Amino acid sequence: MKDDPQSFYQQAAGCYNTGDLKEALLWIERCLGIESENADVLHLRGTIALALGDAKDAQHWVAKAVERSRNPVFLNTLSVIQVCTGEFARAAESARTALAIAAQGHPDVDRSVLLYNLGRALHMELRFEEAAALYRKVIDLNPGHFQAHCNLGAALKSLGHLDAAVEQLRRALSIQPANLVAHGNLGHALLTLGRYREAWPHFEHRWATSTDENGNANMEPPNLPLPQWKGESTRANRDRLLILREQGLGDMLQFCRYIPMAMERFSQVGFVGPEPLRRLLSRAFGSKSSKFVYLDETRVDLRQWDMYSSLLSLPLAFDTEVDTIPVAIPYLHAEPHAAQRWSKRLAGLQNPALPRIGLAWAGSKGMPVIDARRSMPVEKIDALISWPHARWISLQKPASDAKTLQPRQRAHIVDWMNEMDDFADTAALVASLDLVICVDTSIAHLAGALGKRVWLLNRHLGCWRWIHDREDTPWYPTMRIFNQKESGNWDEALARVLAALEQGAWRS
Q1: Are both 366 and 498 inside the same structural domain?
Q2: For residue 85, which of 115, 49, 127 has the smallest C-alpha distance?
Q3: pTM for the complete prediction?
Q4: Predicted confidence (pLDDT) per residue in 191-250, tens digit
Q5: Are residues 255 and 341 in the same domain?
Q6: Domain total for the chain?
């Protein structure tokens, strides 16, 4: 085998195919020492780098392979890598080129693979119609292509074709019944349709489709040495339930409504939550009962607990349907003296008889793809704050300079948010207002949980929790939803809000 590049290449390919990536890398490097310009060798080097998780290095090697040979397989690999590096337009172009070359005399190349990767690149560009059409072509060529069915379901959901999305996701699961991503996507689609009882078991696999605050995918579910409580009977005078925080602050504010129900079933309930919610939730659930304890996640002694549940698994445990959502509103409360102090400050402003309207226009910096759709550019609030018949109060904690009030806007809106240390402080201010207008962020859930009138400016085909195409929500009886009619068009939704203000709807 001495200095035999073909043997080195075969050894590298064999190790790659068996998953021995470190050994594959050693063999392909030996081969490159002799065949540094061989396109097949360069391509395999890039493929190994991609499998090792180094997309940038992979792109370097595969691009060199493409320079030496316009092989559609190489271009397909380059497309896959470019999706990994976020270069979606370039990924689509690489896949298109691969398809064009394959059509000119490469009958051995699997066209369904090229079509799928083109569809995936377009999907990531949010070009859902085009992506869906390509996934259908893949399925025509290969009816058992699990990922095409799964991605078609996701694209159809993004287009608002929910029943068709459910059908495709069920087909995907008929091919791979244990696939957690398909289960998670199906759960979200069913929830968006309001088919809760069907949805919750699939929603238990939401971890596979979730991202953390940094946008990293494939989060892991909790792995505790305790049984998960799924609604079975308990010994109310003995069993203790540990509830784990989950997802964003808005999710926690929405689903903490289940804590009193859990307190009826368990002798003690602990919630492992973030510091910004400690005072608010401790007051709501612990001020009148010793059953509730708010826990620091770094100081949890699991020996003190018998079962656990993630917060968003409680709707499943309580067999929640749309008409059985717990809506004992308010279930959160502002501290009365703090609310009174804010009322006095508001009364001291000019024109104290004007309605006091809180405003939040942007979400947090986490989940950037979602946040780009749910947040309004700060200049869009001009349409509201220029309406002279209200006292506008900021409820926005700017997460970046782009979300901060512009100097010219500060004359029209009172901003005391630098005085807010946590959600108990914000709750006291919200309690002093007549109306809250906000995008889909934690402020919407806080206002709804406090029983305040809240108008939600909802992105086009928004979050599952608001149910598709509704202007009200069973989660918050005091909420009215103003849905975008087309993606990114805040102007039309804001015009409807202004019309409602002119009609005095904030009073009703």
Answers
A1: yes
A2: 49
A3: 0.89
A4: 999 999 999 999 999 988 876 555 555 578 888 999 999 999 887 778 999 999 998 899
A5: no
A6: 2
